[in-house]
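Q: Sequence in, structure out?
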Amino acid sequence: MSQGPINFGGVGDIDMHPEQTGALTRRLHDAGAVFGREVPAAEGSINAGEQEADTGFDTLSKNFRAAYNASEPQLDQLNRTVQRLLEDLGNGGTRIVAEYVQQAEQDAARMRSLE
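A: Exactly. Output:
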């Protein structure tokens, strides 16, 4: 069943469209999973590109590789953090949409019981 916008108390322009908002929160969660999958996969492409370009022989490429290798554990941790944050934001948003809809349904039931 399609759910129209919900506006508690008719306050301003604060409407929630649960289906659209829920879809967006799921996409946010899914973006975390994609991020977690794609970023590590890109390292193989970086390494392959380096080998294909025949890097590693001049000072600049050696310095770059040494700096990259030194920071790789921190980059991995940042990648995992970004993935977790996106997934947590999506999960939180999905939970809030469900709570918002539940509250709207409870309020409507209360109003009907006053008739």
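The chain has one domain: 21-113.
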